[in-house]
Predict the 3D structure of the following.
Amino acid sequence: MDLLLQQILAGLASGAIYACMALAVVMIYQAIDHLNFAQGEMAMFSTFIAWQLMQWGAPYWVAFGLTLAISFVGGVAIERVVFKPLKDAPVLSHVVVFIALFAILNSVAGFLWDFSVKPFPSPFGSGPFLGSRLIGAHQAGMIGATLVILAFLYVFFRFTRIGLAMRAAAANPESARLVGVRVGWMIALGWGMASAIGAIAGMLIAPVVFLEPNMMLSILLYGFAGAVLGGLNSPAGAVLGGFAVGVVENLAGTYIPVIGGELKLPIALFLIVGVLVVKPNGLFGRVSVQRV
């Protein structure tokens, strides 16, 4: 029983990171109707920025705050400079640009900081959480940080004018424009927030997987799996999907001997394919109906 509970808590901890990535993916998907294949590399690059700031002597939380600000501005700049001119371009054009952005960020990070593995500090420590043997302090911190992000986003999108305008711009851009919402800038703000959320995910997972340019590849796949499982048009569903993927991955790797630790990553791919075949809109996604 202790092993089962330990694996569930560990799955929730890793699922918290997948939930952050899934949420970032869904925010951009709702804005432009495309999956951001470079989301993981954006998070990785932001984590390297935080590491560099700490190498220059900045305290952890100062580097954390500056990295969030830089990531937000970077996300807005990418949307304004790169994707705004492509808003009417074919789907394949967006895919090619996303792949190019992925390769550019990965290569630039390797050029600036090389491909060697670097340790990244944890703000929560490495000991057990409140003396418990079932979950570590950093794992509990990852879950807590994700819940704080979710609470902030709930309040932001439900009770603030900008949040309501962003929801309107994502749901019905034409009607939002008619009531004075600047849809283009709402999309840019969504990019900035998604970039900042991805940066938090990168800084939280870096102490576990260590810092290097390819650290977010598998994390992004798990995030995609969570987003597809929960529904690409349901932010709350994507978050629940991320947590579910983390728990399923951990339990399958522990209790199914054939899978073990080596085949845990294909579970995410299996979930993506399985959900798309059985329920294309995800468990919590909405079926869009258009009048013709």
